[in-house]
Amino acid sequence: DGGITQSPKYLFRKEGQNVTLSCEQNLNHDAMYWYRQDPGQGLRLIYYSQIVNDFQKGDIAEGYSVSREKKESFPLTVTSAQKNPTAFYLCASKGRSNEKLFFGSGTQLSVL
Amino acid sequence: QQQVKQSPQSLIVQKGGISIINCAYENTAFDYFPWYQQFPGKGPALLIAIRPDVSEKKEGRFTISFNKSAKQFSLHIMDSQPGDSATYFCAASTKADYKLSFGAGTTVTVRA
């Protein structure tokens, strides 16, 4: 069953803590993306990667970091520098020959 | 600064009615305009998309109307059903990088 798997579904962060959100895809897609969703603000691009071992900042990269060591995986770390991390985080991927973006089911991050 | 402006923020329609959501953009380099549908707690899924070389595209009860000179496009949901109750996002991207810029979203509620 092909798709994008995000985990965990819910995550809680303590003050000063770094947390990592997982994103795995088995669609053999080259490009992967991380979006942040806040109520009333749509989706904002955090980071994206078009190929393994390469990634670019999106519109709101401050306080976040990523890695792309494998084609299937694109984890996002929310660092302690991100002062307002509470949001719904969405991972997406896209094949080379297609514009269609496939999304995972998201991770809701909250601050304790 | 949001590159795609979407309205209204929310709308309520009776079953069988027509839902209309509007989007406007400034970047004339945009050449791909998709609409995504999102149910609560889930990731968005592609509903329908259009390129600027056509003025209208229809898929079932969903129609995109595109006005290149006005830099506007809209989604019409005909014969709205309770199962259409969801949040709808318009988006746009350029051929150069396929990074989608999303509107703020419209929550549609269809009353039975």
The tally of beta strands of chain B, per DSSP, is 11
Q: Write down the Rg of chain A.
A: 13 Å
Structural class of chain B, by secondary structure, is mainly beta
Strand proportion of chain B, as a percent range, falls in over 45%
Assembly classification:
heterodimer
Largest sheet of chain B: 6 strands, mixed
Structural Rg of chain B: 13 Å
Overall pLDDT of chain B: 94
What's the shape of chain A? globular
Shape of chain B: globular
**What's the helix count of chain B?**
0
What fraction, in percent, of the residue positions of chain B are helical?
under 10%
Name the helix and strand elements of chain A from N-terminus to C-terminus, one letter apiece: EEEEEEEEEEE
* Beta-strand share of residues of chain A: over 45%
Instruction: Provide the succession of SSEs of chain B.
Output: EEEEEEEEEEE
List segments of chain B where confidence is low: pLDDT < 50 over at least 5 consecutive residues: none
Total DSSP E strands of chain A: 11
What is the straight-line distance between the termini of chain A? 35 Å
Structural overview:
The complex is a heterodimer of chains A (112) and B (112). By secondary structure, chain A is mostly beta strands. Chain A has no helices and eleven strands. Chain A has strands spanning 4-7, 10-13, 19-25, 31-37, 43-51, 54-57, 64-66, 76-78, 87-94, 102-103, 107-111. In chain A, the strands form two sheets. In chain A, strands 2, 4, 5, 6, 9, 10 and 11 form a seven-stranded mixed beta sheet that branches. Chain A has a four-stranded antiparallel beta sheet with strand order 1-3-8-7, with no helix packed on it. In chain A, a hairpin with a 2-residue loop joins strand 5 and strand 6. Chain A is globular. Chain A starts with a strand and ends with a strand. The mean pLDDT of chain A is 93. With 112 residues, chain B is mostly beta strands. Chain B is 0% helix and 53% strand. Chain B is built from no helices and eleven strands. Chain B is globular and about 45 Å long. Classes of the chains: A mainly beta (112), B mainly beta (112). Chains A and B meet through strand 4, strand 5 and strand 9 of A and strand 5 of B.
